[in-house]
Amino acid sequence: MSGVLLWVSCGPKENPISVGVAGRGGKSQRRFGLCNGITFASFSPAVTDPSRSSEERVYEVVLKQAALVKEQNKGTKRSLNLNKPIEGDFTQGDLLSVAYDRCGEVCAEYAKTFYLEAYPIRLVVHYFFVEIEIEIDYTLSIEVWCRRTDELVDGPNASHITPKALDRWEKRLYDVFEGRPYDMYDAALSDTVSKYPVDIQPFKDMIEGMRLDLRKSRYNNFDELYLYCYYVAGTVGLMSVPVMGIAPASKASTESIYNAALALGIANQLTNILRDVGEDARRGRVYLPQDELAQAGLSDDDILIGKVTDKWRSFMKGQIQRARMFFDEAEKGVSELSSASRWPVWASLLLYRQILDAIEANDYNNFTKRAYVGKLKKLLSLPAAYGRALIGPSKNLTKMVTTK
């Protein structure tokens, strides 16, 4: 299977598959305020009250997602309507089964080269011929959507992507949430968001992260970088926790668990950034806080030269420490997840943390050496993750709210 399977046209479709999401009263209750098909009434955290820190604004999304979970727990649920005929060589009953199967094929293909270092939704360790199953895996549809979105700016056709193309992709997202998917992968996602309390905001925010990659290659401070990390990775945790589920025995607040999932996404993205400093610089991008570089006596020129100095080592130690702090915060919430979800998330967390160790082992040379975790260490991480997954919910998880 080639990467072409993941590439999608962002152009408008004349006849999307008609699925329909039925809300209370049998009719969709979603109202998104479409204006000319592209401009939306609900705003991203990036443009709401910029006087507050990024962490404070992002936490509003956490609260909104947690509120949806509480609403569903009270018995308010959405459902998917497949009463209308759907064209194709399969019956209506086969549609979703085929859609999820195709999503699984995409994820399995990426598992060979990418999945052990990627989104912390579900770990399919095909690399070691071991597969971890989580019932009917509705997370597959989310994974594929994230991959397709990422491919828009980092895939083979990225040079042709424009802001308007991303606007069309966002319009398509609204159609998916309204139950009007354009293809099989969209159909699986429409089904998933109809069954679980998944909010559209994290999906929109991930698209906003793609917009940033089109227009922004420098970040003045960590507040700006934090928002970017939320957009491109923190959002994944907020998308997936409603599907993975929270352990019935958990006494933690829903907000604290979602905040831990957000922290894992931030930690993973910071790790990506620290691993890929040289590679990103060769593409004209520096995802490091400019003010902190200056405080360390460094500049973009030092990164382009790519020489490891004492100043660089000192700077990197601080950056790695920050990433580990986010991993520590994420750990507080993993044990609160449902028993079926804890193992893959622990495995993802432990594997990603080891990339930071590898950067240190390379003497902080992330200019010409790529930090990676060897196959044996990856394999050994699985039983360690399983052992941690056996530990159930903690009684002491406190609400993690940033009050800067």
TrEMBL record:
Keywords associated with the record: Carotenoid biosynthesis, Isoprene biosynthesis, Transferase
Biological process per Gene Ontology, one example term: carotenoid biosynthetic process
One Gene Ontology MF term: squalene synthase [NAD(P)H] activity
This protein's pathway: Carotenoid biosynthesis; phytoene biosynthesis; all-trans-phytoene from geranylgeranyl diphosphate: step 1/1
Annotated PANTHER family: BIFUNCTIONAL LYCOPENE CYCLASE/PHYTOENE SYNTHASE
Protein name according to UniProt: 15-cis-phytoene synthase
Regions annotated as coiled coil: none
Annotated family: Belongs to the phytoene/squalene synthase family.
Classification of source organism: Eukaryota, Viridiplantae, Streptophyta, Embryophyta, Tracheophyta
Catalysed reactions listed for this entry: 2 (2E,6E,10E)-geranylgeranyl diphosphate = 15-cis-phytoene + 2 diphosphate
Record Pfam families: SQS_PSY
Top EC group: transferase
Enzyme Commission number, as recorded: 2.5.1.32
CC per GO annotation: plastid
InterPro entries associated with the record: Isoprenoid_synthase_dom_sf, Squ/phyt_synthse, Squalene/phytoene_synthase_CS, Trans_IPPS_bact-type, Trans_IPPS_HH
Organism: Vigna mungo
